[in-house]
């Protein structure tokens, strides 16, 4: 009997994963009194599209499937298809999901934005196998102070694998399983969830190089379009809009750069789950169309609108007039009087601070959006009126 199939994403701390496989195999062999040459598990270390015969055979016959879960695992088509093949084996078992309960064993390898709900199988009652203190397994294996906890985890996992395998024998998969045609349930869920996800609209309140030429002397931060604004040059040459979209993507959300003229209408219609990120140049209030747009946005302020105003120390001209420029921007947002609001950040003076502040603002906006969309409105209920600005932190 093959007791377990260990699945993990490529290039995911291979040394530690091989160590886990060896330790788990040894503990299972000890528990069942196996001969030294007996193979009790299979480590799925194939790469890319390679689908070796022994991996196919192991996935077809193993009694449990141990998945080392991380964001990389979730994004791996190879891992998703193998997961899908094993889940299909459980569904096709005549005894049903109840008979094979516990055979699918997710283990949190790296908590890099991943939660247990990402690996939930609603029809199977999947039970993740947790470490003693809830730590990432990867972190626990690296720390000498956690050696006892790691040993306890391996022992408990081995116990679960053996107990599950002996309690119910999962039939083998039908002959000829094919990784190329297998379904990746992670991808299916991602597509289904896109309409339910928050979408982050990124708006740039900065002039073009041509517009700014009439207002200030240093034009190196501006381009042909508003979206070309790159206030952290020369440290970071990337436009701020592109950098913001990268931060959004890192939080596994969708983003779209939209013109500032579209914002008032979006606020009138209501953002619901969506979030709006307004990137404001300190000089924006001195550009006529931008000044009018900022004032209108400020009048329709929404609790999920994040406002960030970079202030690079390399921009001497802006630093010299910092006080008056900030004051003009603040006048456009009379409701944002709290400097402790995570969604209103003035004077973000480095690219790293921008990434951090934007990430914190998005998280706070998601929490606020969830409060106003849950519970869902009753059918026929009137749409709530304008909300007072929220001034507390996240």
TrEMBL record:
Pfam families the record matches: TIR_2
GO biological process: signal transduction
Residue ranges, annotated region (Disordered): 366-394
Origin: domain of life: Bacteria
Residues covered by the TIR domain: 4-110
Gene3D superfamilies on file: Toll/interleukin-1 receptor homology (TIR) domain (3.40.50.10140)
Protein name: TIR domain-containing protein
Organism of provenance: Actinoplanes cyaneus
């Amino acid at each position: 009997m093959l007791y377990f199939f260990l699945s993990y994403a490529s290039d995911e701390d291979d040394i530690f994963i091989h160590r886990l496989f060896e330790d788990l195999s040894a503990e299972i062999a000890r528990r069942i009194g196996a001969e030294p040459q007996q193979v009790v598990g299979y480590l799925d270390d194939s790469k890319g599209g390679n689908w070796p015969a022994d991996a196919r055979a192991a996935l077809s016959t193993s009694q449990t499937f141990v998945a080392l879960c991380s964001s990389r695992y979730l994004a791996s088509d190879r891992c998703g298809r193998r997961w899908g093949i094993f889940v299909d084996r459980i569904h096709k078992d005549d005894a049903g999901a109840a008979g094979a309960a516990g055979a699918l064993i997710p283990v949190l390898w790296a908590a890099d934005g991943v939660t247990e709900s990402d690996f939930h199988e609603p029809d199977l009652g999947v039970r993740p196998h947790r470490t003693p203190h809830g730590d990432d397994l990867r972190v626990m294996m690296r720390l000498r102070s956690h050696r006892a906890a790691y040993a306890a985890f391996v022992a408990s996992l081995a116990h679960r694998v053996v107990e599950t395998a002996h309690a119910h024998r999962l039939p083998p998969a039908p002959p000829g399983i094919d990784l190329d045609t297998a379904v990746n349930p992670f991808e299916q869920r991602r597509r289904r969830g896109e309409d339910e996800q928050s979408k982050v609209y990124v708006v740039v309140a900065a002039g073009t190089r041509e517009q700014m030429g009439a207002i200030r002397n240093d034009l190196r931060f501006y381009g042909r379009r508003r979206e070309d604004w790159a206030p952290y040059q020369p440290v970071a040459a990337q436009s701020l809009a592109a950098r913001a979209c990268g931060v959004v993507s890192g939080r596994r959300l969708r983003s779209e750069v939209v013109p500032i003229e579209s914002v008032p209408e979006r606020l009138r219609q209501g953002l619901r789950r969506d979030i709006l990120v307004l990137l404001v140049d300190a000089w924006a209030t001195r550009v006529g169309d931008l000044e009018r747009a900022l004032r209108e946005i400020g009048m329709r302020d929404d609790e999920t609108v994040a406002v960030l105003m970079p202030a690079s120390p390399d921009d001497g001209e802006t630093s010299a007039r910092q006080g008056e420029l900030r004051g003009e921007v603040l006048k456009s947002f009379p409701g944002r009087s709290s400097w402790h609001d995570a969604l209103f950040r003035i004077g973000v003076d480095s690219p790293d601070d921008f990434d951090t502040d934007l990430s914190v603002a998005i998280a706070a906006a998601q929490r606020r959006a969830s409060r106003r969309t849950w519970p869902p409105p009753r059918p026929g209920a009137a749409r709530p009126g304008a909300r007072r600005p929220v001034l507390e932190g996240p």
